[in-house]
Design goal:
The complex is a heterodimer of chains A (301) and B (533).
Chain A lengths: L1 E12 L2 E12 L3 E5 L6 H8 L7 E6 L2 E2 L4 H5 L2 E4 L11 H12 L4 H11 L12 H13 L5 E5 L7 H16 L3 E6 L2 H7 L2 E6 L2 E7 H8 L1 E7 L12 E7 L2 E6 L4 H9 L3 E7 L3 H14 L6
Parallel strand pairs in A: 3-8, 3-9, 6-7, 7-8
Antiparallel strand pairs in A: 1-2, 1-4, 4-5, 9-10, 11-13, 11-14, 12-13
Helix pairs in contact in A: 3-5, 4-5
Chain B lengths: L7 H11 L3 H23 L3 H11 L2 H7 L10 H34 L2 H6 L7 H27 L7 H28 L3 H25 L1 H4 L3 H6 L10 H23 L23 H38 L3 H9 L5 H33 L3 H5 L5 H34 L6 H9 L2 H17 L6 H19 L3 H4 L17 H24 L5
Helix pairs in contact in B: 1-7, 2-5, 2-7, 4-9, 5-7, 5-8, 5-9, 7-8, 8-9, 8-12, 9-13, 13-15, 13-17, 15-17, 15-18, 15-19, 15-20, 17-18, 17-19, 17-22, 19-22
Classes of the chains: A alpha/beta (301), B mainly alpha (533).
Amino acid sequence: MTVVKTQGLSKTFGDFKALDGVDIEVKEGEVFGFIGPNGAGKSTTLRVLLGVLKASEGSAEIFGKDVWKDAVDIHKRVAYVPGDVNLWPNLTGGEVIDLFGRLRGGYDKGRRDELISRFGLDPGKKCQTYSKGNRQKVALIAAFSADADLYIFDEPTSGLDPLMERVFSEYVQEAKAQGKSILLSSHILSEVEKLCDRVAIIRKGRIIETGTLKEMRHLTGSLMFIETDQPIPDLAELRGVHRVQAFDGGWSFQVDADELDAVVRHLSAFGIKRMESRPPTLEDLFIRHYEETETGAGGGV
Amino acid sequence: MSQLFDHTWSLMRFILRRDRIRLPIWILSFVFVSAGIVLVFDNLYGDDIERQAIAETMENPAMVAMVGPNYGGADYTTGAMTAHEMLVMTAAIVALMNILLVSRHTRGDEEEGRLELVRALPVGRLSSITAVLLVLAAVNAVLAVLTGVSMAALQVESVDLHGSLLFGAALGATGLFFAALTAVFAQLTQNARATTGLSIAALLVFYMVRAIGDVMSEALSLTSPLGWILRAKPFVENTWWPVMLSLGLAVALSILALYLNSIRDHDSGFLPTRAGRTEAPATLRGPFGLAWRLQRTGLIAWAIALFILGISYGSVLGEIERFFEGIDLFQQLIVEQEGFSLIELFIPVLSSVMAILASIPAIMVMLKVKTEEKNGRMEHVIGRSVSRWRVAFSYWLLAALTAITMLFLTGSGLGLAGNAVLDEDLPLGTYIGASFVYLPAVLIMIGLALVFIGFLPSFASVIWLYLGLSFFVVYLGELLQLPDWVEKLTPYGHIPGIPLDEVNYGVLAVMIAIAVLLSVAGAYGFRRRDLKT
């Protein structure tokens, strides 16, 4: 079942087109990663989904309801953590968490206390004394203590230390295990890689790639390292080989999946001394997409 | 040591650059109003006899409480009239300008983290606050000279250069005193709101001390900067020591502010902050509870201040009565007014001024929606299952309740104190009714604020300008003999003066309907637009 669905979603601010036909789909029980650099439109998309901004064109639905018209109904089942958490300087963290729970229409008190101790937050301090990480914890605790069906996180861990990042991952996995859906925007790619089932890459307000990591890896192919007895004169010219670099006495490069067989056959003639292969990381995918769209095909974007 | 002040000059230029529109508008408004008043007074009253007649009506404690003693009463020239009727009010508004500017550039910047960026640069530790104070000194000096020169340039007899410059200097010196005072408060409190609140509270207290002092005790009046500055008596005696006193104290307060700034940590204040509660109280459960919680302290302070204002005005009523006893001229005047006592004549005037002051906290409550939105906190509320209608209505409700409470407090303060000092009591209901009848006007102001929030949020502060205009028209409308239609430009001008006028409930009902319409339209606008952060 589809939980979030946008079609041709566009948003303009004056002359500036922040979103230009964004199509994403989040299915029930999956963790959906939304990646892209600063200013690509991640937060704008999430804020449209939250009914804070009104879409200029296209449709956006959560649980099959319009995100603008039925915002209040939708929000009863949604928990959201903004990227930049601004809180009331003169309320304490504990008060804010309770307030958020009540504004949503109910939360689990025991779970709230558990989360406070897991995240190591001092709930008796005024928000103006909190660091960015602590303000983020307040929003995360409020979100996870809510019994929501969809969690929307906008760069949730950008201010957290590695230990707290791990706590966050655990709660995301727990939510997923309970069949809940999570939409997570981030530019910390290792985190997305670890948590997400499917990923969409956004660039200048457009989705340029979407799918499971496996599908994307297949598109990108593998990263290889090879050391041979004889030099390979035409390595860079081989079909399906990209980004050839001298490395540690050999060569590292990227091979398209459907050319892998032919390339390996060709290389074996040079006397392979050492050969390693690993799947591309999300970072490889991401950088490759950006380089490509930036130079070649991306000219039209 | 010298390193403490590195780059002060650059920071001053930066402040001037940031406020390149704000500052000229402030300064020119004072120049135009001051010079304009001279012209108006000069044209309004043809000869000495007319002016002298006005002077006599001014010789009563109510007017003394409002604008101060009439030093030029014996020879009420245009200059003396301007100084008497305008000096203290204009000085108070100049003080307000200084409070807002200093708070914005000291605690405001510090709270938003902008000052930290500046402090990370090779800039002296005291440069920032020094730059603010120096810029304000320059602003007040320019204001003083421009005001003085433009008043004198009108070539009105009795408005000479010496007196005009003193008038300007009195404004500037008072301004600088409050700039320095605010700079000290900015060190004590921990955020800009508290700084502004404390400074405005001080301004109100100083005004009331002067009002009570001018009526009852000269010595008491001299303890208030607004009191001693009146003793400059521009155009009458032209005394400069009050200006010097204000400037001297401004320097002393500035040094104190610099000292306090140098011994405190960034982002901290001297007033203690308590450890907070770990759980929210039961009242903090919706947008209304939140709106109340966020503004509670300020509203309580306003309630106390307005109640005291009512009492201050009320306590003067007895003096008025005593003053007019036995004066034939005024006995006749009372008879002319169809059987109303003099006290009853004053109640509507006092109520209108207090109603406009009571509108300030109500409008502030409504405009809080905008502040919350701008600071990215409205998203937390809207992003949960709270509709925008409910948010708008919650703040509107709190604003309306604030208006009701404040009007009730000013009216009852006036009545309780008034009846305590008067020989013949009036029913308390008359006082409260005179104040309360302004509720529809305040509701219209709240509705207008909501319209701005819904459609033109970045222009919402225009509502303050409108309130300022209303104050000007209502407060000075009678004195300047402005035509009736001018008064009708503000909602306050449509309210009947109890107990003098007959109350037309139809008009009040129409006003309430307009207020409701504006509010619903504003909420609709808020419902359909993007949140701005």
